C-alpha cells in the first residue's frame, strides 16, 4: 500500500508499544503474529527482535521508517524472497491439508536433521506452545548461553509452516543455516547423528526461551545423610533457579546418582536433572566370523565356515572353534588375513580377535604339526607362497616382464631336510594338483630343458636364487628365470634366503623365486645377517598358465553346513535396556571420581536411579558401539510398547498409587536409522496430535502407516508422552478452526514515521 501512518513516541517508550500502536492503526488483530523492521539510511532493513527494549536502546531516530510485517496464513513471512515450499504461492494458499502432515526437503545428507525435527514437531505441548505464540513472551535475547533467540525463532517458523496445512513439504534451509552458525560441527553437508542434533536443539531452545534472565550461582549439595525427598526437592529447586523454560517443563526429569568409594566406603548421593535417557542395549559376548579353511589335502577344496567365538577372544579361540568342525587340531592351524592376493598379516595364536574386522578375508591353513614359520628348531618350515603371472611390459628391448599376483596364496609345510628347489617344486606341484594339470612326458620334454639337479646343496653367499649350477650371474638369467637383474640373496643361516638350495636349470610348468612379503622380487630391505623367512613366488608364463592352470577350479570352494545356520539374535525388551541403565557399574580409568574423604581419585561404583520423570520422555537407544579396537552398529530388535509403557518399577521416589497414569507412557514418535556406521539414512514415525493417525516421514515424502509397522531394528530414538499429559491435552478446548481475520491492508510494507 502507499499510505504510511505517523505516530509520536517518547524515547523511553518500548518497541512493544510501537508494535501495538502499529497494529491498531493498520487494524491488525493482536492474535496475528507481527514483527518490526527499521529502515536504515542506506535503504536496507534491520530486524528489531527484542520488543522489550526502549527506542533509546535501539537508537531509533525521529523520522525513521519502521515496517510492520505480518505472518502469512501458510506460516511464512512475506519478506522471505525464496519460497520455502516446492509449490507455487497461489497453489500453497489454496492447499488446505492436514496440519502437521508436511515433509522436509533433504538439502544434502540432512535426513538426520529432518528426522529430529519431525519427532520434536509431533510433541503436542511443545508444538501448541509455538502455534499459540506463547514463545514470543519468553524469548531471551540476552542469555549469554543462548543463541539470541534465533534458534527458537527459526524453529517456530518451521512449526508454523508445517502445521499451517498449506504445505506438502518445506525447505528448512534457513534453519540449517542457523544451526551451522551456532554449532560448527553441523556446518556443511556431512552426515550426522539425529540424536546429537536433537540434543543441541533442545539445549538451544531451552536457553533461547529461558525465563531466568540472570542466572545466579548455585552450589551442588551432597545428601550428607539427609532424606532423599529433601535432597531431591532442593536439587530441583536449584535447577529451576537457573533453568526455567518450556523445555524444562516438558522434557526434564531427575536422576538419583549414588557413588561408593571402594577404599573408604564413602557414599555420595546427588540428584541431577536429565533431558533424555541414553540406554545401553544388551551386548552379546559372542561374535560370528566367516573364515576359509585350506586343508593340506590338495584334493579338498577350501571350505567356508561360520564360527561363533568370544568377542574378546584370541586367535587360538578361532582355531579351537574351527577344530570342532574339521577335526584338525588347533596346533596344526595358521591364521592369515589375505588381501589383494597376498598375506596382509599372518597372526600369532595369542593375538586378539578384535584386530580382525568383519570385512577381512580370513584364511586358516592346515600345516604340519612339526611346522613353524619362525622357529628354527622345528622339523618342518612353513613357507608362504604367492602365485604370479608374467605380463609383457614395454621396455627398450622388450625383454622385461612385469609380474602380477593372482589367485589365493598358500602356506605350505616343507621338511627342513628337503629344502631344495627340486623338492620344493614337486611339493608345490602336488599342492596345486587339484587345479594344475601335470604335463605328459611329451609335453614336458623340451630340447632346451636340462635334467633337474635336485641334489644341489646350499649355494654360497651371493649366489642367485634359482641360478644354475654354473651360477651364470644376473646377465645370463633370462626373463623366464624370474630373477630381477642385479638382485642378490643375502647370507643367513637356514632357512634364510641365501641358504636355499639352488633351483635347477630345467624349465618346468613354472619357476620359483624368493620374494618379499609384498610379492615383489625386491629384497633390498634384507640385511646381510637377516634370518627372516623368505616368501616364495610361483611364476607362470602366460602360455603355460593357459594350458595347465584351471582358474575356475582354483577359485572353487565349498560351504560347510555351519554356513547355512543363521545365528538369530533374540529380541530384547525396552525394559531390559532400562534395567541395564540402572545397573551398578564401576567407573573407567579415564573417568575416575574424586573422593572427598580419601582426597584422591577413585574407581568408584556408580548407580543411577530414576526419581522423577518428565511429561515427554526421550529414550535414546545406544546402537552405536565404540571401543578402542572396533566400531559397530547394533542391529538388535528392541521390542517397545506403543501404549502403556510402565515405569512404576523403575521410579524409586515414593509413588502416588491413586494416580498410576503418572508412570505410564504412550509412544508418539520414533527416529529411525537404517544402514551402518559409515553411511545410513534417517526417517521418522510420528503420531499426529490432532488426528491420532501414525505417519512415516522420509524427507519430503509422507505416508500413513499402521501401528504394527512402527517396531523395527531401525528404531533409534523413542518419544513417549505421559498418559496424564495426553488426557489433559485432550480435555483442553481446541483452538478455533476458522482462520484469523485477514489484515485490513497488505502486510508489507506497512510503515509509519517515528517523530
UniProtKB/TrEMBL annotation:
Residues 442-451 have a biased composition (Acidic residues). GO terms for cellular component: cytoplasm; nucleus. Its main location: cytoplasm. The keyword Magnesium does not apply. Residues 102-723 form the USP domain. Residues 73-96, 438-503, 730-755 are annotated as: Disordered. InterPro entries: Papain-like_cys_pep_sf, Peptidase_C19_UCH, Ub_carboxyl-term_hydrolase, Ub_USP-typ, USP, USP_C, USP_CS. One of its GO terms (biological process) is proteolysis. CDD domains: Peptidase_C19R (cd02674). It is found in: Cytoplasm; Nucleus. It catalyses: Thiol-dependent hydrolysis of ester, thioester, amide, peptide and isopeptide bonds formed by the C-terminal Gly of ubiquitin (a 76-residue protein attached to proteins as an intracellular targeting signal). Its EC number is 3.4.19.12. GO terms for molecular function: cysteine-type deubiquitinase activity. The keyword Cytoplasm applies. Keywords: Cytoplasm, Hydrolase, Nucleus, Protease, Thiol protease, Ubl conjugation pathway. Deubiquitinating enzyme that removes conjugated ubiquitin from specific proteins to regulate different cellular processes. Belongs to the peptidase C19 family. This is Ubiquitin carboxyl-terminal hydrolase. It comes from Pipistrellus kuhlii. The lineage of its organism: Eukaryota, Metazoa, Chordata, Craniata, Vertebrata.
